[in-house]
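Hey team,

Filing this mostly as a record. A colleague (T.K.) asked me to run one chain through the structure pipeline before their review meeting, and I want the input and output archived in the tracker in case anyone asks later how it was produced. No errors, nothing strange. Just documentation.

Input sequence:
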Amino acid sequence: MRKELTKKTGKVIIEIDPNYFRPTEVESLLGDASKAKKLLGWEPKITFRELVDEMMKEDISLAKRDKLIKVNGFKYYNNYE
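Output structure:
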């Protein structure tokens, strides 16, 4: 059990059970929608190419926002590392 302590008093403020940690990086993520298609009759509404395009546009939009924040002297958080 990992414990987080306050600097002032040294009292425990949080206890973390490592059993609930997920790995931050995984080797590969694979999806298979065939079961959803078979059991639920589900079909995707957009193509994979459209999904990638949407994700890229959002990433570009966030990068532009971060640049604007930085250029104007405000603090920003790099979420891409």
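Quick notes for T.K.: The CA atoms of residues 65 and 76 lie 10 Å apart. The first strand starts at residue 2 and ends at 5.
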